[in-house]
UniProtKB/TrEMBL annotation, chain B:
<feature type="transmembrane region" description="Helical">
    <location>
        <begin position="191"/>
        <end position="211"/>
    </location>
</feature>
<dbReference type="InterPro" id="IPR000515">
    <property type="entry name" value="MetI-like"/>
</dbReference>
<dbReference type="InterPro" id="IPR035906">
    <property type="entry name" value="MetI-like_sf"/>
</dbReference>
<keyword id="KW-1133">Transmembrane helix</keyword>
<feature type="transmembrane region" description="Helical">
    <location>
        <begin position="231"/>
        <end position="257"/>
    </location>
</feature>
<feature type="transmembrane region" description="Helical">
    <location>
        <begin position="23"/>
        <end position="41"/>
    </location>
</feature>
<protein>
    <submittedName>
        <fullName>ABC transporter permease</fullName>
    </submittedName>
</protein>
<keyword id="KW-0813">Transport</keyword>
<keyword id="KW-0472">Membrane</keyword>
<keyword id="KW-1003">Cell membrane</keyword>
<dbReference type="GO" id="GO:0005886">
    <property type="term" value="C:plasma membrane"/>
</dbReference>
<dbReference type="Pfam" id="PF00528">
    <property type="entry name" value="BPD_transp_1"/>
</dbReference>
<dbReference type="GO" id="GO:0055085">
    <property type="term" value="P:transmembrane transport"/>
</dbReference>
<feature type="transmembrane region" description="Helical">
    <location>
        <begin position="79"/>
        <end position="100"/>
    </location>
</feature>
<keyword id="KW-0812">Transmembrane</keyword>
<comment type="similarity">
    <text>Belongs to the binding-protein-dependent transport system permease family.</text>
</comment>
<feature type="transmembrane region" description="Helical">
    <location>
        <begin position="48"/>
        <end position="67"/>
    </location>
</feature>
Length: 261, 272
């Protein structure tokens, strides 16, 4: 049973005459997989994010996560966006603990078991290389560090599914590569399923097992690719001919999708 | 070339801040003194009569001479202003939270509030006098009416401009509207709220003095109105000076409160 199943989904914004953002969308992501979604801009990638997390309910078709049809926000999902949206009045640690104050399962336990949760947050901070930065405020951190903290916040409630919407788009190339490795290791160390929405084809090929190519609006899946490179992958895999071939292939598919639009 | 010189001058500053800081701190006092000096000089050189534009020395003389009524009326004005302002803070915060709660309330009430704000408050004073008689009550209410609008607008704006991503992250976790307001909206609107207090307190003085001028037997507004009818222009200016002092003091207090309560907002914008 796949963790995420999307079947023939239509999503239209702004009533009957509104824009059709996705149409006939079909995709399946297995539990524990790392999937990437690429496509021309405005192809409804963000809509896909909102459909899977239950922020939008489709007009037609079916979205199910963990075997249940999505009719309201599903709290087994963690989200991270390009904009880290850390709250500036909270320390990094308190920002990371924020989801626990919301999620039904944790919010009543938080006060009593604060110590355990703080320890967990600190362990997460250590995995992303931010050990000891918990008591800093977000604005005292660099963009890359904020994005690391953002990942911790998305993971603190141990989501089964992590949705990433271009989380590294605003970072410089070196920081981005560092964070790719952070994500790669996080995925390897846990059984979390990750769906990464991105413009960066190299990022998609480096990180994912499965790549979905979306068409221009109204978005649907044009092709699904399996990434053959063995794990664990080192950054050097990006200089192999097969890697570049795959990136080239994706690029031309997206170029065609843009022309078709 | 001159830009380079400027740059090196700026770069050269940090190692010895101890020499420059006092000037920066003294600047407000020096500029004020400079203004008074220019004023004094201008009046003396031009020979304008004190019944038209009294020199600062004459104004200070009037303050000393009429100290007892000035002090009494200053306290009265301070009292009506802060009371009206206090009500505005409570009511403005409450209405701001209410308005910012949902986009439809925001959309519906906003034009009404703009319309209400466009009404000159001095036009409301006669109505207030009909309802409450002359004296303290209309002054307090005018101060309240004039100062609560910026508070409402700022609090509502703070709530209405939550980043959609933040809202999405929390809603995806199952957050209710109340959660989002408590965890994000209200803390986020606090810098707007405290920022608006500086505007509001200044406006509150305008409101109370306007009301005192037309409909009161107390307060600086009334004192200046009666001084004017007796051609006691130095006393009018003494009243203006007291108002300015009270205004600066209250503004400074609000700025201090703002800094204390929402220091993160100042530091976070500075770091960006």
């Amino acid at each position: 049973m796949a963790l995420v199943e999307i079947e023939r989904v239509d999503m239209r914004y702004g009533g009957a005459g509104g824009t059709l953002a996705v149409s006939g969308l079909d995709m399946k992501v297995e539990r524990g997989a790392f999937a990437a979604v690429v496509g021309p801009s405005g192809c409804g990638k963000s809509t896909l994010m909102k459909l899977v997390t239950g922020l939008h309910i489709p007009q037609a078709g079916n979205v199910s996560v963990a075997g249940r049809q999505v009719t309201e926000p599903v709290s087994i999902v963690g989200m991270a966006f390009q904009n880290p949206t850390m709250l500036p009045w909270r320390t990094t640690l308190d920002n990371i603990l924020l989801p626990l104050e919301i999620v039904e399962k944790h919010r009543h336990r938080l006060r009593k078991h604060k110590k355990d949760y703080v320890a967990k947050a600190e362990a997460l901070l250590e995995t992303v290389g931010l050990k000891g930065f918990g008591d800093k405020y977000p604005w005292q951190l660099s963009g890359g560090m904020q994005q690391r903290a953002n990942l911790c916040r998305a993971l603190i409630h141990e989501p089964e599914l992590l949705m990433l919407d271009e989380p590294f788009g605003a970072l410089d190339a070196f920081t981005r590569e560092e964070l790719w490795c952070v994500i790669r290791d996080l995925h390897a160390a846990s059984d979390v399923t990750i769906i990464l929405v991105t413009h960066d084809l190299r990022e998609a090929v480096f990180l994912a097992d499965q790549i979905f190519v979306m068409s221009a609006r109204p978005g649907r899946i044009l092709a699904e690719h399996h990434v053959p490179f063995a794990r664990p992958r080192e950054l050097s895999v990006m200089y192999e001919p097969a890697f570049n071939e795959m990136v080239q292939g994706l690029r031309s598919e997206i170029a065609e999708a843009r022309v078709a639009a | 070339m001159s830009a380079m010189v400027e740059n090196s001058a700026v770069a050269g500053t940090p190692p010895r801040p101890a020499f420059r800081m006092p000037w920066l701190r003294l600047a407000p006092w020096l500029y004020t003194l400079g203004l008074f000096a220019l004023w004094e000089l201008g009046v003396r050189l031009s020979g304008i009569s004190h019944t038209i534009l009294p020199a600062p020395t004459v104004v200070f003389g009037a303050i000393v001479q009429y100290w007892s009524p000035i002090w009494k009326n200053s306290l009265q004005t301070l009292y009506t202003t802060t009371l009206g302002f206090g009500i505005a803070v409570v009511a403005g915060l409450a209405l701001g939270l209410f308005v910012g709660w949902s986009r439809s309330i925001y959309a519906g009430l906003y034009p009404l509030m703009v319309g209400f704000n466009a009404i000159p408050k001095v036009a409301l004073v006669p109505i207030l006098v009909i309802w409450f008689g002359i004296g303290t009550v209309p002054a307090v209410l005018t101060a309240f009416l004039i100062s609560f609008f910026p508070i409402v607008v700022n609090v509502a704006t703070g709530l209405a401009t939550i980043e959609p991503e933040t809202e999405d992250v929390l809603r995806a976790l199952g957050a209710k509207k109340l959660d989002i307001m408590l965890k994000v909206g209200i803390p986020r609107s606090m810098p707007y709220f405290f920022g608006s207090l500086k505007v509001a307190i200044t406006l509150a003085f305008v409101g109370s003095v306007v009301s005192e001028t037309v409909a009161s037997n107390n307060g600086l507004g009334n004192m200046m109105a009666s001084a004017q009818s007796q051609f006691n222009v130095p006393l009018v200016f003494a009243g203006l000076l007291m108002l300015a002092i009270e205004g600066i003091a209250m503004y400074a207090l609000m700025a201090w409160v703002e800094k204390r309560m929402t220091g993160w907002a100042h530091r976070s914008t500075m770091s960006q």
